[in-house]
Amino acid sequence: MRSKQIQPMIETSIMAALALILDLLPSIQLGPWISISFAMVPIFLLSFRWGFHYGVLSGLLWGLLQVVTGDAYFLHWLQFLIEYFVAFACVGFSGLFMNIIQKKFNEGQRYAGLGFVILAMFVGSFARYIWHYIAGIVFWGSYAPKGQPAWLYSLVVNGSAWLGSFLFCSLVLVFVLTASSRVLTANRNNWINIS
Ligand code: 218
Hints:
single chain; 2 strands; 2% strand; 7 helices; mainly alpha; binds ligand 218; globular; Arp2/3 complex 21 kDa subunit ARPC3
């Protein structure tokens, strides 16, 4: 591994672990599957610092950590693959906005920067929850209350979990970045050199 990749890789693993821990904290629970937490914040932050590829990798690792810690629900191999690997990896789509976010904050355009941060979180969280929504229709439909179609049940469950988590993450990251936008750039050039 090139020494340039070592720092982002370390952050990738730390942020995945942090997301796992935040997810275990008591969150706003509106039903068994409607959990509103800010566990995605570390993955978003990493994505804004290092971009799409590291964001996807960290999301994948977060999903994997849930599996190995016994925190995953298995109904079907395809559901398992979609909800714990594909969905979590998609949080990294927020990293597609790294350049514009970095640029806005560098130029001192805070509000524009925050706008793109929120847009990026919208895209990343949506890209994740669309998979939970699809899995909800295909695999979790039998849990719907009597008479409720699966698409509506999944929309209620995953739509509210998505909206709540997106808003909660936005609140937390806007607060953090208003206090110190340096977290976006700090130490990005201090490569750890082990060669
Ligand atoms: C309707 C419905 N119920 C449950 C699930 C499963 N689900 C939902 C959201 C997030 C996650 C990942 C772990 O936090 C899971 C497995 C669903 N998709 N749809």
